[in-house]
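Quick one: structure tokens for this chain, please?
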Amino acid sequence: MPSPLRIAVLASGRGSNFAALLAARDRGELIADFVLVASDKPHAGALQLAQTAGIPTLVLDPHDYAERRDYDFALFDRIAASKPDVLVLAGFMRIIDGDALKPWVGRMINIHPSLLPKYRGLHTHRRALKAGDSEHGASVHYVTAELDGGPVIAQTLLPVEAGDDENTLAARLLPLEHQLLSAVVALIAAGRLSLGADGIVFDGQPLRKPLRWRDRKLLR
């Protein structure tokens, strides 16, 4: 059995994706140790979840730093001290300085609520509805300096229903986001997924297109 994957989590909000990872661990689906949950928001729900679970937490306030770059370097220095194998951005709502994240490329993933490369950035549900899309979804990707532009690992698809608004679409997508993120992190923990010089490698073979979450599993 592989050693547990050491995971640090960055979150700004309520922490539902982090809660899904904890639940996957508790079900035995994810072999992992959570070494840190860090946030830019002192009242983030993710911090409260971590404290209840006995996981170390870190709050670093951006307002304490004159420059965004200074904040990012300080934050990542503190995260590095926890010696994670992987850093999961689970609803972290800040753009990260490219130089600060450079040492983490290949070890940092993000969950984004759109079918990338569509709708990078904010308000993805609104933009999908405005465009008249028949299908929406979420993506897990490796993080690079390009906003929501790193190699896409896996996606989950959701039909847009008549009468959907931003709230209903987001609510129906969220459980699929949880499942997708947990499944991808489990693959990393099992040593089946990595990012190499030539792109994503899955089970020893180049991944030519994102995996798809179907029938409660990730498929090529």
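The first helix runs from residue 16 to 26.
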